[in-house]
Design a protein that fits this description.
Length: 390
């Protein structure tokens, strides 16, 4: 690809990315985004473009040569319910919704790869371009899988990427084994008898019990789980029905737990139930625990990680390619695909000056677009045995 072509593609991709950014849509509501993606894929001349997979998902298929191996590349399309703080001309035009996780960039980078691979080939086999809805709720990948993704559009392995604020543009990181955590969520409801603030002894209010419980829950990670297992239990909300001069009869405690092994997740739930029951008994209130699993842990396949590093060496400067030091305690819906095929998830720099993900000032950095596109293309050629640039 000449410098001129490269610059033309970058300009085109910036235009797509900002268009997507200005029209963010929440999970399973990505109608405009999906239509945009499908129209582009058809324009690029893919062999098949199917819409409505798992709600608003889109799958594009591109075949070259006679090889029977197939690889999937995945991007996520959804935005978040956050009000964007920005003066940029491409800021969100949908009040209360914004692309605060860079999925506009991910979608654009995969579109760029579809365009390049359709134009240039350089591989032997089948590429599936998987544009999934609703990553942020952890429901979109499952919806596509439940809609027969693997039967209708089979593939042998899958690659995905996420931008990373703080990591410089043009930098690449991944690691074999666990890379992103499971996410469990919980809600604990304490019930007692509220009443006059001046007469606590006449009832059994729930606020002091809830405060004790929040403190006791801190001992799950620090005293009940092995320090060798990375895990987090965070209480994030405490809501009561009390007012300034009335003690609450109800308290709700909500939170979030992260772990990297199903056994650890199970143990967090078990310990939470024991501690909640004991604390509730000590304060003479009743308790109910609702514990559910939202995201499964993401484990990268070692062989595919090697392939990803090999592909990265043709795209990134050698000094900018690194093994991620430790797994992240954030979660990714991409993990759901790995119940079916091996896969590899990688991180690309969004710049040191980038606002954090899910921050109202965040914006995807367009200088990263070609790196992501070129990585997708390189990984296809790496895995489906073509020659770069053919
Ligand atoms: Zn996100
Ligand atoms: Zn994201």
């Amino acid at each position: 690809m000449s410098e001129l072509d490269r610059d033309a593609l970058k300009q085109e991709m910036i235009f797509w990315r900002r268009d997507l950014h200005a029209h963010p849509e929440f999970g399973f509501e990505e109608k405009r985004t999906a239509a945009f993606v499908a129209a582009k894929l058809r324009e690029f001349g893919l062999d098949d473009v199917t819409e409505g997979v798992g709600g608003t998902g889109v799958v594009g298929t591109l075949k070259r040569g006679s090889g029977n191996r197939s690889i999937a590349l995945r991007a996520d399309m959804d935005a978040l319910r956050i009000s964007e703080q920005s003066d940029a001309p491409h800021r969100s035009g949908n009040p209360g919704i914004m692309h605060a996780c860079g999925h506009d960039g991910h979608t654009t980078m995969l579109l760029g790869a579809a365009k390049l691979l359709a134009e240039q080939g350089g591989f032997d086999g089948t590429v599936r371009f998987v544009f999934q809805p609703a990553e942020e709720w952890g429901r979109g990948a499952l919806a596509m899988l439940d809609d027969g993704l693997m039967q209708r559009f089979p593939f042998d392995e899958i690659f995905g990427l996420h931008n990373m604020p703080g990591l410089p543009i043009g930098h690449f990181e991944t690691r074999a084994g666990p890379i992103m955590s499971a996410e469990d969520i919980f809600e604990i409801v304490l019930k007692g008898l509220g009443g006059h603030a001046a007469r606590p002894h006449a009832g059994n209010e729930t606020l002091v019990a809830a405060c004790a419980l929040v403190t006791n829950l801190q001992t799950i990670v620090s005293r009940r789980l092995s320090p060798a297992d990375i895990s987090v239990v965070s209480v994030t909300e405490l809501i009561t029905d009390g007012t300034r001069n009335a003690l609450p009869g109800l308290a709700r405690i909500l939170g979030d737990a992260r772990s990297f092994r199903p056994e650890v997740s199970a143990e967090i739930e078990r310990q939470m139930r024991i501690i909640t029951e004991g604390t509730a008994a000590a304060y003479n209130v009743t308790a109910e625990v609702d514990y559910s699993r939202e995201f499964v842990p993401l484990r990268n396949d070692a062989e595919l990680v090697d392939a990803a590093f090999a592909a990265a060496r043709s795209v990134f400067e050698p000094g900018n390619i690194a093994v991620a030091r430790e797994p992240m305690t954030a979660s990714e819906d991409f993990a759901r695909f790995l119940d079916y095929v091996p896969g590899c998830f990688v991180f690309l720099g969004n710049g040191e000056g980038s606002a954090p993900l899910h921050n109202s000032s965040y914006d995807f950095n367009d200088d990263g677009l070609l790196f992501g596109t070129n990585f997708h293309v390189a990984v296809v050629r790496q895995r489906l045995g073509g020659e770069a640039g053919r």
